[in-house]
């Protein structure tokens, strides 16, 4: 139904702008895949060929200080948070692992905090139970990078593997960087915890972990996991990797930590979060992947995105907005 500017303005006057925006939101939603809220923190999206389950792993309330964004002032950061209707004294960083059922395989992308995060984190297993997903039914865990919120959930405090039947797939450049003992020995004190986590999680399974080179099919042989490709997304960490999943009607990009808090770094893609190890490479990656998403009309999922953490990217000014399928 074409709507002329005049009709639109007249309708706005009649209905009120807020309700007209609601009409447009529902028109936009009609073109998007339907998302089902299974439980609080569990969203299922059927892409046709593939079913995606987003599982919240809680959040971390990080007090906001001037260091969080390297190249913006605290005032600018607070203004961006305020514009998004968020608190300005802290940033709530959500964690969102993703499960994709594809070709008879059940694949978990990133393992969450497990028992090693903030008290408000580590909800993945609880939410998997709500979703009716048995951890033992996971066949593969694909890791985007080696920060603790992505790997610690692989192994519990007793040392047991949480997804005992899964093969673990990691980006080779990430493995090579973090598992280098000389680099660990000479690392600054502030990074020792991150290096120790990689040893705790991976040392006992070093022989069975499958390393892949980003930019090629993730898993060896299409018969294992067809339709999942990896994309180099370096910058946040040296081997940080994004993934493209063939969904049928729509392709999905899982871009992991290409952005931290969306209101800051989706909105202002040139801002650098203090956690980006190579800020300039991360900035370029954000720009490149965002433009690819717009060009190819991809769905987007991300580990630190808000709401159900799966939805659409739209251009706004010199940056972007992320619109989750479910708030
Ligand atoms: Zn992260």
Helix segment count? 10
The Cα radius of gyration reads: 20 Å
Going across the major beta sheet, what is the strand order? 1-2-3-6-7-8-9-10
Question: Which outline best applies?
Answer: globular
Number of strand segments: 16
Structural class: alpha+beta
Largest sheet: 8 strands, mixed
Helix and strand element order: HHEEEEHEEEHEHEHHHEEEEHHEEE
Determine the oligomeric state from the structure.
single chain
Mean pLDDT: 89
Q: Roughly how many Å apart are the termini?
A: 27 Å
Helix content: 25-40%
Task: Walk me through what this model shows.
By secondary structure, this protein is α+β, with helices and mostly antiparallel strands. The protein has ten helices and 16 strands. It has helices spanning 5-15, 17-31, 74-83, 124-131, 148-151, 172-178, 181-185, 192-202, 262-265, 279-296, and strands at residues 35-39, 42-46, 51-55, 59-63, 90-94, 98-102, 105-109, 140-142, 167-171, 210-212, 228-232, 241-246, 251-254, 299-301, 310-316, 319-324. 43% of the residues are buried. Residues 1-30 and 220-224 have low confidence and may be disordered. Residues 147, 149-150, 257, 303-304 line the site of zinc ion (ZN).
């Amino acid at each position: 139904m074409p709507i002329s500017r005049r009709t639109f303005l007249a309708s706005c006057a009649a209905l009120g702008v807020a309700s007209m925006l609601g009409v447009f939101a529902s028109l936009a939603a009609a073109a998007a895949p339907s998302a089902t809220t299974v439980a609080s923190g569990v969203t299922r999206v059927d892409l046709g060929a593939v079913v995606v389950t987003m599982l919240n792993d809680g959040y971390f309330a990080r007090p906001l200080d001037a260091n969080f964004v390297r190249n913006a002032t605290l005032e600018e950061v607070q203004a961006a948070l305020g514009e998004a209707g968020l608190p300005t004294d802290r940033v709530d960083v959500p964690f969102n692992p993703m499960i994709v059922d594809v070709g008879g395989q059940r694949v978990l992308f990133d393992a969450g905090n497990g028992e090693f995060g903030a008290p408000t984190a580590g909800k993945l297993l609880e939410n998997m139970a709500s979703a009716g997903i048995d951890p033992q039914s996971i066949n593969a865990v694909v890791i985007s990078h080696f920060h603790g919120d992505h790997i610690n959930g692989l192994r519990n405090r007793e040392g047991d593997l949480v997804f005992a039947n899964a093969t673990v797939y990691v980006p080779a450049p990430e493995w090579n960087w973090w598992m280098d003992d000389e680099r660990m020995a000479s690392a600054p004190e502030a990074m020792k915890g991150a290096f120790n986590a990689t040893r705790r999680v991976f040392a006992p399974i070093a022989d069975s972990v499958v390393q892949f080179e980003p930019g090629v099919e993730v898993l060896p042989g299409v018969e294992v996991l067809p339709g999942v490709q990896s994309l180099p997304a370096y910058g946040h960490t040296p081997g940080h990797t994004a993934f493209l999943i063939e969904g049928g009607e729509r392709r999905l990009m899982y871009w992991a930590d290409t952005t931290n808090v969306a209101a800051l770094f989706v909105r202002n893609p040139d801002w650098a979060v203090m956690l980006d190890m190579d800020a300039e490479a991360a900035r370029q990656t954000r720009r490149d992947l965002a433009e690819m998403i717009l060009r190819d009309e991809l769905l987007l999922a991300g580990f630190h995105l808000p709401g159900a953490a799966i939805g659409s990217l739209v251009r706004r000014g010199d940056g972007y907005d992320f619109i989750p399928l479910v708030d």
